[in-house]
Design goal:
Largest sheet of chain A: 5 strands, antiparallel
Strand content of chain B: 25-35%
Number of strands of chain B: 13
Number of helices of chain A: 2
Strand order of the largest sheet of chain A: 3-2-5-9-7
Structural class of chain B: alpha+beta
Largest sheet of chain B: 12 strands, antiparallel, barrel
Strand order of the largest sheet of chain B: 1-2-3-4-5-6-7-8-9-10-11-13
Low-confidence stretches of chain A: 1-33
Oligomer: heterodimer
Radius of gyration of chain B: 26 Å
Helix content of chain B: 25-40%
Number of helices of chain B: 12
Chain lengths: ~140, ~400
């Protein structure tokens, strides 16, 4: 009987704790202790750097879209329809930059950070499909 | 003078032969919008420079240089070729100017000629056409959609070496025409199948399923080229004025107002034979030598309409020969005794491209009334004068 009483006392306590955690955010100390989750959005980290993608269309017009991916997640996408600089404020080694477009003249792509394949990358007139890994 | 002419012709041929031999040693035939243009189109409107030696076998020979102001400016300052500047000079690029020296049968100077031509409508110029860009982009729509997804897949790979390797393979598959699907890493092959399903690239899925040796870069290029070839059929309309001076005085002996229209017919991009409509009109003011003094009281109206048959290679759509059949009507207000007021001729012009930049047109005119046949031999060298790579045509 005593055992049953003890169990009966415990049950409401656990329910209370569960309802507390669902309603209120965890305290600061709890957050510090938890493992850092993989972010699904871009976030500035101390080791991130800015990359400038300089695109020049020569002797013809062109259009291009640059998409930056990190661990399979799209974190930045910008399009241009004439020669311009694309500024990517948050770039980490291992990130991938997909460049897709078309030009009726020659296209020169320069990325200000080391990449594979390395730039200056000169593409002839025609479709542009290029993938760069930030080193 | 004959020796000078022979020297110029030989030097020109030698330079072009040397350039062509070098270009061929380095890479396959460069195919640009300019190289895909027909010889007839280049005679109507020049993108860069043209040196023409006309009527070499007749008594009135002609050495002509044609260019446009933008080509000369870009030669001095290649930064003008950057699209933001390039678009600003559209009007200058639509203008042609020409100078020529007339020579008699003994190659002596027989007058100076000059002229300007303006392209009122030039829908063939893909280098300024946003419509062309959107069409060319749409031609590879499925591949454009799937490509970023594949970069995303590569960034998800944790092994750094494998990441670089698969990224290189991805770039090669989309650009290198020798890389086939079966050459790719199995992981990348699976990713391509998976991402193609995600973006509903059903055509790509079918292609991969039917042909594991699929060379995607070839297909992407072919889609782009078919849009570009279709643009070579579009309308070109020019208007111009030219004049010729006397050999002993800077005074006009001949002023001609001209208009020229070129429009292609063929819609299917991979046809070996293309057809082009060419209509020319000219109104000429001439000196009447029967009256004293020098005037421009003799006038002639000239109208020519014809079909130009362009023979191209099937794979690259590179024009290598042309035959133009046309009818010509001429009306002269004050005909000389040996002339008729109205005359009709049937003309045939055979153009053979002996080198990438050199066409040899052979003109034959037949007058059905008199039964006379005339023939003219010309040489046309279309030169860029700027490093070929600057125009980004090599592929």
């Amino acid at each position: 009987m005593a055992k049953a009483k003890k169990g009966a006392r415990r049950k409401p306590a656990t329910k209370k704790a569960a309802s507390k955690s669902s309603r209120k955010p965890a305290s600061r100390s709890t957050r510090k202790k938890a493992a850092r989750p993989i972010s699904m959005v871009a976030e500035l980290r101390p080791e991130t750097k800015t990359a400038i993608v300089n695109v020049t269309f020569i002797a013809g017009v062109g259009q291009l879209t640059a998409s930056l991916f990190r661990n399979g997640v799209l974190i930045n996408m910008q399009s241009i329809s004439n020669s311009a600089d694309i500024i990517l404020s948050d770039v980490l080694p291992g990130d991938g930059l997909a460049v897709v477009g078309v030009s009726s003249g020659k296209t020169e792509i320069r990325i200000s950070v080391p990449t594979s394949p390395k730039t200056l990358d000169t593409r002839p007139a025609g479709p542009i499909h290029r993938s760069y890994i930030i080193l | 003078m004959k020796n000078i002419l022979c020297f110029i012709t030989t030097a020109l041929l030698f330079c072009t032969l040397e350039n062509s031999a070098l270009a061929q040693a380095k890479k396959p035939l460069p195919l640009t919008a300019d190289s895909l243009a027909t010889g007839n189109y280049k005679d109507v409107f020049k993108s860069f420079f043209q040196v023409a030696l006309d009527r070499l076998t007749s008594n009135n020979k002609d050495i002509q240089f044609t260019s446009n102001p933008f080509a000369i400016m870009a030669r001095a300052d290649t930064s003008l070729l950057i699209d933001t500047s390039y678009l600003k000079y559209k009007a200058l690029r639509n203008l042609n100017f020409a100078f020529s020296a007339k020579l008699d049968s003994s190659y002596k100077f027989n007058g100076f000629s000059s002229g300007i031509t303006y392209a009122i409508i030039n829908r063939r110029d893909i280098t300024v056409s946003q419509y062309f860009l959107s069409e060319a982009y749409r031609a590879n729509d499925e591949f454009n959609k799937v490509f970023p997804h594949l970069t995303a897949f590569v960034t998800g790979i944790t092994d750094a070496d494998k990441k670089i390797k698969l990224n290189d393979q991805l770039n090669a598959f989309f650009f290198d025409s020798t890389t086939s699907f079966k050459d790719l890493d199995p992981d990348l092959q699976n990713a391509i199948r998976e991402k193609a399903k995600v973006v509903q690239a059903n055509h790509l899925l079918t292609l991969i399923k039917n042909d594991p040796k699929l060379k995607l870069a070839k297909l992407i290029r072919a889609n782009y080229d078919s849009v570009r070839t279709n643009f070579q059929n579009r309308l070109l309309l020019t208007a111009g004025i030219s004049d010729t001076t006397y050999k002993d005085k800077f005074m006009f002996s001949n002023v001609v107002l001209t208009t020229n229209l070129v429009k292609g017919f063929t819609r299917q991009p991979n046809r070996v034979v293309g057809l082009e409509l060419n209509i020319k009109g000219a109104y000429q003011f001439l000196d009447d030598t029967l009256t004293g003094g020098r005037d421009l009281k003799r006038q002639a109206l000239n109208f020519e309409s014809g079909i130009n048959m362009v023979i191209k290679t099937r794979r690259t759509q590179y024009p290598w020969a042309e035959f133009k059949l046309s009818g010509n009507y001429t009306y002269i207000n004050k005909p000389y005794a040996s002339e008729r007021r109205d005359s009709v001729t049937i003309n045939g012009t055979l153009r053979i491209r002996i080198l990438d930049d050199i066409w040899i047109p052979i003109e034959i005119k037949y007058d059905p009334k008199s039964g006379n046949v005339f023939g003219f031999l010309n040489i046309r060298a279309n030169l860029k004068g700027i490093k070929k790579g600057a125009f980004g045509g090599s592929q």
